[in-house]
Amino acid sequence: MTQRAGIFPTFFLSGFECSTFLWKDRGRRNLVAETQHDRFAHADYAFLHDVGIAVAREGIPWPLVDRGEGRYDFSCLAPLIEAMNAAQVLPVWDLCHYGYPDGLDPFMPDFKRRFAAYCRAAAEHVTARVRGPHCFTPINEITFWGFAGGEWGWMGPFGKSREGRYALRNTLCAAAVAGVKAIRGVDPKARMLHVEPLIHVVAPRDRPDLADAARRECEDDACHAWDVLAGRLCPELGGAPDVLDIVGCNCYSFGQMEYREHGPHQALAPDDERIVPLCELLQGIWRRYGRPMVISETSGLGRGRKDWLCDVMQESLAAVDRGIDLHGVCLFPAVDMPDWHTGQWLHNGLCDLQPQADGALRRVPDADYVEELHRWQRLLNRVTVLDEDPFSDPVDLNDVIQAAHRLKMQPDRDWA
């Protein structure tokens, strides 16, 4: 059988929380520093190497590197690049993870131009220092940022209206398109992973009058950014089919929700009969765009991490068996992260973080989660530890397809 080359050197990916938003009353946040990934980059990347993961989503902090007037300081990337090169892990660079430089605002006329200039500078910097193929996420979760920064007031630019959400997501889409073009001016072969939440929204049982609003949110609003990037909506913003390259779906249990007219929706209980199987949600996105797909973030919590991975893989392989072009599953994050609101550790990483007396955050792998990863690597004929040259051959997707056909996983609604 002829090899069917995937996009990445391993089917399983990971990543590091890298938000740099202005957060409510706390000012600028830097999650790379809060998780001490900057301090323990070598250990973090060595861990990924040792569990057979050769791809990781990694952030470039636009607010910290862009000094204005075309001046950039990428020195904060040096330890990250050194660590990923030593461990032979390929980055997917997040260029804007909810944060923009001080003194700038998404609604300023200069926002798109400045973002594009930064994207070009960032691409020039990293492509010269990390082997390819090169992959970028220009702006992370445009749809969610629209809500959190345009309607809920959680993060900059602190909008608090539906109109503010609509305006923010469109200006972010326009900037993302400009970013794609700037990056491809540096590396025409660069791949783009456009990441958005995969959601399902239902009306409350006692409010059937909200059914249309719930449907619009999960069928139209949730796909707005992808539609604009693909040129299907708002063509004046510059989208085109080649801009929407790889479709990244962030899959979490709280992505299945009951509609609320004001504020964030209510997550459905894991055994709620209104839950739609993940397989069907993935199929819906595949039918809509027909682009290569990645589950760009997924994780369970606490002791549920192992079972969550099992559920996601069963649903993913059921979707592959039905024809979707799935190139990978990103177990995100590699190391734990704090709840943005409370600061409590979420226990959702491949490694937990254990505070030490000297202030260091010790990395403690979740043994059950890692073993479940290895079980699925073996089922898909993947390595469990990277070999001497993990980039010598991309994933042969025929292995994944054959496993899907052989295992014949059946989708279900119960995520308990």
Q: Please list the strands of the largest sheet in the order they lie side by side.
A: 1-4-7-8-9-11-14-15
Q: Work out the helicity level.
A: 25-40%
Give the overall shape, derived from the CA principal axes: globular
Largest sheet: 8 strands, parallel, barrel
Oligomeric state of the chains present here: single chain
Structural class label: alpha/beta
Low-confidence stretches: none
Q: How large a portion of the residues is in β-strands, by DSSP E? A: 15-25%
Q: Helical stretch count?
A: 13
The first-to-last residue Cα distance is 39 Å
Radius of gyration: 20 Å
Written as H for each helix and E for each strand, in order along the chain, the element string is: EEEHHEHEEHEHEHHEEHHEEEHEHEEEHH
Verbal overview:
With 416 residues, this protein is an alpha/beta fold. Helices cover 35% and strands 17% of the residues. It has helices spanning 31-34, 41-50, 62-65, 78-87, 111-127, 142-150, 162-186, 211-219, 224-229, 278-289, 305-321, 367-379, 397-407; strands at residues 12-15, 22-23, 27-28, 55-59, 66-68, 71-72, 90-94, 135-137, 191-197, 200-202, 246-251, 256-258, 266-267, 293-298, 326-331, 351-355, 361-365. Strand 2 (22-23) and strand 3 form a beta hairpin. Helix 2 (41-50) runs parallel beside helix 4 (78-87) and helix 11 (305-321) runs parallel beside helix 12. The longest helix has 25 residues, at 162-186. The radius of gyration is 20 Å and the shape is globular. The model has no long low-confidence stretch (mean pLDDT 96).
